Automatic annotation (TrEMBL):
<dbReference type="InterPro" id="IPR006913">
    <property type="entry name" value="CENP-V/GFA"/>
</dbReference>
<dbReference type="InterPro" id="IPR011057">
    <property type="entry name" value="Mss4-like_sf"/>
</dbReference>
<keyword id="KW-0862">Zinc</keyword>
<dbReference type="InterPro" id="IPR052355">
    <property type="entry name" value="CENP-V-like"/>
</dbReference>
<keyword id="KW-0479">Metal-binding</keyword>
<comment type="similarity">
    <text>Belongs to the Gfa family.</text>
</comment>
<feature type="domain" description="CENP-V/GFA">
    <location>
        <begin position="16"/>
        <end position="167"/>
    </location>
</feature>
<dbReference type="GO" id="GO:0016846">
    <property type="term" value="F:carbon-sulfur lyase activity"/>
</dbReference>
<dbReference type="GO" id="GO:0046872">
    <property type="term" value="F:metal ion binding"/>
</dbReference>
<protein>
    <recommendedName>
        <fullName>CENP-V/GFA domain-containing protein</fullName>
    </recommendedName>
</protein>
Length: 195
């Protein structure tokens, strides 16, 4: 059974696992919880948890988790080759972001704008091969790179992980991107958004 992450107010970096519904997509990710509760905290200062009211995010039902350091914090364990491994790719607007989804079950686990590479990583004492975002050239600050994890794909009942707590503690921000405003707020969604 999941336990509360906020037994202490000290942010703690911990490994979590997630997947699509059929298991074709499998990943490990480091989340630092609890986050700093702010409508729009400085980039890379804390994880940012939010829901956006733009048509893309709303229709895909995305629940964004933006990592502190995506090239270090996200490890795709399966498939290791995104397109040959059965992932489908959707791109819209300027087509710099890849809204990958499982070709079997249709679940979207993450969105990427940036390059990746295979690395050997140690996860829970075991060496594994993983696809990770390339550190070289990674630039979220200027909008050249982007990574967002879909929180709904994190496995339930992991120690220190509880989506119900995220809502109860007010950790979820709401972004107003429907009309290209980009404003964040806490407490309730903007027009056209969802809880």
């Amino acid at each position: 059974m999941a336990t509360n992450t906020s037994l202490t107010n000290t942010p703690t970096r911990r490994l979590y696992h997630g997947s699509c519904h059929c298991g074709n997509i499998s990943y490990a990710v480091y989340l630092t919880l609890p986050p700093v509760v702010s409508p729009d905290p400085p980039l890379n200062s804390t994880i940012r948890i939010y829901k956006c009211n733009c048509s893309t995010c709303t229709k895909m039902s995305l629940f964004h988790v933006r990592l502190i350091d995506a090239p270090s914090d996200f490890m795709l364990l399966s498939p290791l080759d995104l397109t040959a491994g059965g992932l489908k790719d959707y791109q819209c607007y300027i087509k710099n972001a890849h809204w990958f989804f499982c070709g079997t079950c249709g679940v979207r686990c993450f969105t990427i704008a940036g390059e990746g590479e295979l690395k050997v990583v140690e996860i829970e004492g075991e060496k594994k091969q993983a696809w990770m975002l390339k550190r070289e050239g990674w630039d979220e600050e200027h909008g050249m790179s982007y990574f967002s994890l879909n929180a709904a794909t994190l496995e339930p009942d992991q120690e220190g992980f509880n989506l119900k707590e995220w809502t109860e503690k007010g950790w979820i921000a709401y972004c107003d991107s429907k009309d290209d405003v980009g404003e964040f707020r806490l407490g309730e969604p903007h027009n056209g958004g969802m809880y």
